[in-house]
Amino acid sequence: MSISLKVKEGIAASSWVVKIFEGRPQTGSGDKEMYDFRLGNPKIEPPLEFAEELKKVANNPFPEMHGYSALAGHIQTREAIATTLSKERGLPFTAQHVIMTAGGAGALNIILKAILNPGDEVIVLSPLYLEYPYYIDNHGGVCSVVETNADFTLNIDTIAAKITPRTKAIIINSPNNPTGTIYSEESLKSVARLLNEKNRQFGKDIFLIYDAAYQDIIYDDNKIPDIFNIYSNTIFAASYSKPLSIPGERIGYAAVHPAMKNSGELMEALTFANRVLGYLSAPVLMQHVVAGLQGVCVDRAEYQERRDMFCNALRDFGYAFIRPKGAYYIFPETPGDDLVFTQELAKEGILVLPGKSFGRSGYIRIAFCVKKETIKKSLPGFKKVKDFFKRNAKAK
Ligand SMILES: Cc1ncc(COP(=O)(O)O)c(C=O)c1O
Asked: Are 237 and 370 part of one and the same domain?
């Protein structure tokens, strides 16, 4: 049997991802209870409105309700989203700027398919969502990784240094997976100034792909700057997976800035990509459901409670980290090698991911979208492992 060498390499490099999806632990830890913080698969149930809307749609069937929708999605759903975007952003979005997709991942893939020529470079910021390099490679692009600062803020100089005449796009994910960072308005404006300057220099229009997977999961009184009012060559990749706690339903959308040059051609390309990547159209039942759920979100307080519980305990145990402002991940530093630290935690039944898998060694990622009980029970293990490393450091 011969499979693609590239796929073979991908499987070898990320076999642990498959294990996580199958719910299998990475390390044998005997009969210990396991506390799994590896995956951003929320254990918080969808808001009640979701079940109500689902029932409403199911109880009011109409002809061809389960047939293929238009390739860009149902016009009513796209209009509902455009109306929400227009209200929120003060820009004239219409259904012609919105395309329904199979989740945020589907949106990112059709965007990259629509814009990339072989060898085009896409800048991603590290630590990064671990699927970006694969998605870019799917469509013949070259992933160009730029480190963020030690506090995970944007470093405009390092981004500038990576922009070349082959740069086609930059992906920005805020609130960020894995760090929980929300990039400030000032830093996003600096990125926009830089891109505009490079656009003039190279005579092109670099796209800013804004991955908004966690746009509704924000804490305290943090606000997310509106990227559409900062850079006009923006393509937005949004998802209902996290705000509605329905990642298995695979529903999201892409939206293009109303003032973008040639937005009609781009929408045509996105629609073509939706078709030829085999999605045909986004899951149609969910298209009907989310049309009526604009602005609905899980109770953010539930996540904030978990974040506070975790952060306060980890801080007491001596872990160093930046308190997440959004999304549902904590990204603490590890004393020494993150793989070793991950393995020590696994001996206590605690499963987290090493920073290496997000492009930054010396950290672990903890997904706290779990039951409160899981967090509570895991805390002694987190303390024990941290104490163990502290004692070892002293002994040296
Ligand atoms: C940063 C980021 N982007 C995109 C996605 C994909 O989301 P979806 O489930 O909507 O495809 C995820 C999923 O965890 C994510 O963390």
From this structure: no
Which of the four pLDDT bands, split at 50, 70 and 90, describes residue 393?
confident
Atom of ligand 1 nearest to the CA of 177: 1
Task: Give 214 Cα–ligand 1 centroid separation in angstroms.
Answer: 8
CATH number reported for the structural domain that contains residue 23 in this entry: 3.90.1150.10
Q: How far is CA 357 from CA 128, 241, 347, in A?
A: 9, 22, 20
One domain for residues 229 and 136: yes
Rounded-to-integer distance, Cα 289 and Cα 122, Å: 34
Distance 329 CA to ligand 1 centre (A): 13
Last residue of a domain, one of 249, 267, 291: 291
Q: What is the pLDDT of residues 235-255, one digit of tens each?
A: 999 999 999 999 999 999 999
Tokens encoding 339: 């793989």
Query: What are 24-40's pLDDT values in tens digits?
Result: 555 555 567 899 999 99
Measured in Å, residue 134 CA sits from the centre of ligand 1 at 13
* pLDDT given for residue 131 in this prediction: 96
Where among 291, 326, 344 does a domain terminate?
291
Closest protein CA for atom 14 of ligand 1: 40
CA geometry: angle at 324 spanning 320 and 329, to 5°? 90
Residue 209 belongs to some domain of the structure: yes
Residue range(s) defining the domain that contains residue 366: 5-46+298-391
Mutate which of 171, 177, 235, 279 for ligand 1? The one with the most ligand atoms within 8 Å of its CB, which is: 177
* Atom 2 in ligand 1: residue holding the nearest Cα: 213
Q: How many CB atoms lie within 10 A of CB 273?
A: 23
48 has a pLDDT exceeding 70: yes
* pLDDT at position 259 over 70: yes
Q: Report whether residue 177 contacts ligand 1, using a CB cutoff of 6 Å.
A: yes
Token pair for residue 385?
A: 């492992």
Residues 6+ apart with CB under 8 A from 68: 280, 281, 284
The pick from 108, 129, 171, 290 for probing ligand 1's pocket by mutation, whose C-beta has the most ligand atoms within 8 angstroms, reads 129
CB of 103 within 6 A of ligand 1: the answer is: yes
Same domain, 182 and 222: yes
